[in-house]
């Protein structure tokens, strides 16, 4: 997921190659809110940046929020339903490598953002039209277009953040953007079902038209994001003139040939990442029906519990980030996160305990993992290969999500939720196996992955001397 | 796979006084005999030499020391008698002239009478139809405006001899209303497919209820009949004998295991008295397509049993013939589908299955595949942790051995 890279970057204290050169305040005549050199103006920009990503996060999980409705109105089974997620992931298997390149070399940050926002909007409109015309292939195509814009838009959003806030409030900004992303997902989970019932009431019956109209209304958030992209482009250009600052660049250098130089621990990190995330996102995509059928939750309550992972992640990501920063010992934190996730899935699979317990655990461990895992890449990769490593990690993560989404749908249709949960447990277990192996390899090689923060400080100092 | 066995009380591990042992044996007798792993099952259509039309199907399941008799008939409304005896030699006798008379008492008997351990009956009395078009609430009661119900006593049924399949131990009663002025059943019918089993197993088709040699499966399927509304829901009224003043209760069991019926975590059971006695077991799910995939699954809601008087229900001659003039009946309704979602209207097809049996109802166990995966999934990281720990310990030791040299 794109947000994980944000998390990684936030924790890496920004990348050294951003291009925000803040000129001294030029025009004292401007009111604070219009002066690009002043905090008030930056806050306005921050607000726009947050809403820039809101639309894509809101619409990404539209299928999960309307799982029963989509399957019923479009008369598709779960396997086909999960294709909606797979089609989102497919373009990003490739685009993760090129998003940064497109922004830097081809479009520039401003046009890049606008173009990706347009893709998101158009994708969502096609998705909704697929509902209105009762054409599931059109919905799939819409998700594909949406996917082209979605992940790259997140890269653009980060680039804007670096460009405007580097050396100022950058970590906070990353944190806030991440929280906004989570809020987008949460609002979606809890709002779309209600919206559907309202549309149903006004149209008089449920059906593919109701679904399409609901999704079209959901698409308004994408229009909002597009407007933000346009205003941001204007403000950025204006700031460039006033402050003589350069256009933001991702600074990503992707060299696919670097892949052959990746070390064994890095591959282990990739395995941990893929095996972990495929047990979280596809589960959330299929979770709503699980909570209504197994635990007897109402549709509203099921939406709420299905979004709890995102709700927890919004405030906990910065806190865990700080915790991992202060203590180091990344592998131990990853181990804790993976074991907790394993326990949460086992609870969901084999007990009838209140699922809030398991889902809260899942939310906590998911936040912790993101904070501890993504920064580890920076410890095992030389800096010039960092872009390639992160691009590769996201790419195989998207590949994993696309494939596992389809497999998860098939398992659910033929073998049910218990088997699906067991499958997820096996995935997390593979992830756990990799963590343990990583720990052993790291210890045996005397790697720095599991150093405490103090050890890292000492090493830094000794290098400085 | 879980094979269920009847309780085995009184297997004398210690030797209590002979009196106590006798009491134990007596108390164990009724159902210690049931719950056999395999049975010899025979299906027999009992003919009436004068009039071949009444359908009377006798399923006789003989175990090593017990016999189960299931008697299915479409005389009157479709009905089944369930009689469990503690001898492998019990027999069913039919007195046709009495059975076909207006007062059929004594027309059916299972001999020897004192071998009967349990008996009960189910009668499928009416097929309901509701118009759910204007009800948005899925759990609304009733689920919509009711149309006049079809009384199953006023159906004409095919001759089951034609559908008798001794290979699969099954037979199908297929019926349509005798009077059908609107032609609703012109191209359709209501079918009751009955199947018996010689051993414990699980069918390949959903809802894949685990059955044993002590059970008998019924599949009710409605197909091709024209519904009277655009979004018609159907329901079935089921009556059983009550033990005044109470009715047996429907229990809903929650389970963690939905491997055999994806996304169905419940199992409904009707028990005629304290375990083990007779039971009726079904998953609260019906299907709107022949493939019975998850996308065509419908919820199935059961109302609580309510006491009702015999004269309010269509009379079943076989129930009267075996039990005599009973007045206490209990009835409940099963409703298939919800106003939204898939429904009968998709393909004019609806099917629902249940098990009828004696003893302890079959219980699903986790499949070996799941247990295997779990063992590997949890065992592998555990072993890895252990191996890694040992490796690090040895490696550390080796390092520390060289340290003094420095």
UniProtKB/TrEMBL annotation, chain A:
<keyword id="KW-0458">Lysosome</keyword>
<dbReference type="GO" id="GO:0005765">
    <property type="term" value="C:lysosomal membrane"/>
</dbReference>
<dbReference type="InterPro" id="IPR011701">
    <property type="entry name" value="MFS"/>
</dbReference>
<keyword id="KW-1133">Transmembrane helix</keyword>
<feature type="transmembrane region" description="Helical">
    <location>
        <begin position="81"/>
        <end position="103"/>
    </location>
</feature>
<dbReference type="InterPro" id="IPR036259">
    <property type="entry name" value="MFS_trans_sf"/>
</dbReference>
<feature type="transmembrane region" description="Helical">
    <location>
        <begin position="331"/>
        <end position="350"/>
    </location>
</feature>
<feature type="transmembrane region" description="Helical">
    <location>
        <begin position="39"/>
        <end position="60"/>
    </location>
</feature>
<feature type="transmembrane region" description="Helical">
    <location>
        <begin position="392"/>
        <end position="412"/>
    </location>
</feature>
<feature type="transmembrane region" description="Helical">
    <location>
        <begin position="264"/>
        <end position="284"/>
    </location>
</feature>
<feature type="transmembrane region" description="Helical">
    <location>
        <begin position="418"/>
        <end position="441"/>
    </location>
</feature>
<dbReference type="InterPro" id="IPR020846">
    <property type="entry name" value="MFS_dom"/>
</dbReference>
<dbReference type="GO" id="GO:0160178">
    <property type="term" value="F:dipeptide uniporter activity"/>
</dbReference>
<keyword id="KW-0812">Transmembrane</keyword>
<dbReference type="Pfam" id="PF07690">
    <property type="entry name" value="MFS_1"/>
</dbReference>
<comment type="similarity">
    <text>Belongs to the major facilitator superfamily.</text>
</comment>
<keyword id="KW-0472">Membrane</keyword>
<dbReference type="InterPro" id="IPR052187">
    <property type="entry name" value="MFSD1"/>
</dbReference>
<feature type="transmembrane region" description="Helical">
    <location>
        <begin position="304"/>
        <end position="324"/>
    </location>
</feature>
<feature type="transmembrane region" description="Helical">
    <location>
        <begin position="356"/>
        <end position="380"/>
    </location>
</feature>
<comment type="function">
    <text>Lysosomal dipeptide uniporter that selectively exports lysine, arginine or histidine-containing dipeptides with a net positive charge from the lysosome lumen into the cytosol. Could play a role in a specific type of protein O-glycosylation indirectly regulating macrophages migration and tissue invasion. Also essential for liver homeostasis.</text>
</comment>
<dbReference type="GO" id="GO:0141204">
    <property type="term" value="P:dipeptide transmembrane transport from lysosomal lumen to cytosol"/>
</dbReference>
Automatic annotation (TrEMBL), chain B:
<dbReference type="GO" id="GO:0005829">
    <property type="term" value="C:cytosol"/>
</dbReference>
<dbReference type="Pfam" id="PF15065">
    <property type="entry name" value="NCU-G1"/>
</dbReference>
<keyword id="KW-0472">Membrane</keyword>
<keyword id="KW-0812">Transmembrane</keyword>
<feature type="transmembrane region" description="Helical">
    <location>
        <begin position="369"/>
        <end position="395"/>
    </location>
</feature>
<comment type="function">
    <text>Required to protect lysosomal transporter MFSD1 from lysosomal proteolysis and for MFSD1 lysosomal localization.</text>
</comment>
<comment type="similarity">
    <text>Belongs to the GLMP family.</text>
</comment>
<dbReference type="GO" id="GO:0005634">
    <property type="term" value="C:nucleus"/>
</dbReference>
<comment type="subunit">
    <text>Interacts (via lumenal domain) with lysosomal protein MFSD1; the interaction starts while both proteins are still in the endoplasmic reticulum and is required for stabilization of MFSD1 in lysosomes but has no direct effect on its targeting to lysosomes or transporter activity.</text>
</comment>
<keyword id="KW-0325">Glycoprotein</keyword>
<keyword id="KW-0458">Lysosome</keyword>
<dbReference type="GO" id="GO:0045944">
    <property type="term" value="P:positive regulation of transcription by RNA polymerase II"/>
</dbReference>
<dbReference type="GO" id="GO:0005765">
    <property type="term" value="C:lysosomal membrane"/>
</dbReference>
<keyword id="KW-0732">Signal</keyword>
<protein>
    <recommendedName>
        <fullName>Glycosylated lysosomal membrane protein</fullName>
    </recommendedName>
</protein>
<keyword id="KW-1133">Transmembrane helix</keyword>
<dbReference type="GO" id="GO:0061462">
    <property type="term" value="P:protein localization to lysosome"/>
</dbReference>
<dbReference type="GO" id="GO:0050821">
    <property type="term" value="P:protein stabilization"/>
</dbReference>
<feature type="signal peptide">
    <location>
        <begin position="1"/>
        <end position="35"/>
    </location>
</feature>
<dbReference type="InterPro" id="IPR029382">
    <property type="entry name" value="NCU-G1"/>
</dbReference>
